[in-house]
Amino acid sequence: MDRKVLLIAGILLLCLATACRASEPSYSAHVWEDVDGDGRQGEEEQPLEGIVVQIVDLANSHLWMRPMTDAEGNTFPFKAGDTCGQYALILNVPDGYWPTTPVVVNTPNCGTAHFGLKVYP
């Protein structure tokens, strides 16, 4: 068999097995310090690390995960499969902060929930 045909076939197989597949729907969260308390992350407002976000199944109230945010304020993605809209993300507000955004988010199309926290005066 021609080398070009083998190379193309190999690339197609690799593509089907990995990166070329559509990404699986997932949920994640992003948390930041909302210094001005407006519920929107400004350019100077920093992400918060170590904040717990619960992922709860709305069909049976089962707690699936309690991921913590990383240094960029993000949780790792929770793969939802075909169940977008079945889960809610719930922010655990730590002592010393108050929320500037809703603390419970149901993202019907999957995606990222954004949570702002302001230092309690």
Work out the helicity level: 10-25%
> Class in CATH?
Mainly Beta
Could you describe the largest sheet, including whether it forms a barrel? Answer: 4 strands, mixed
The total tally of domains equals: 1
Give the topology string: H per helix, E per strand: HEEEEEEEE
Q: What share of the residues does DSSP label as strand, in percent?
A: 25-35%
**How does CATH name the architecture?**
Sandwich
| CA-atom Rg in angstroms | 19 Å
Number of strands: 8
Q: Structural class given helices, strands, pairing?
A: mainly beta
Give me the side-by-side strand order of the main sheet.
Answer: 4-1-8-6
If helices are DSSP runs of H or I spanning 4 or more residues, what is the number of helices? 1
What name goes with the CATH superfamily?
Immunoglobulins
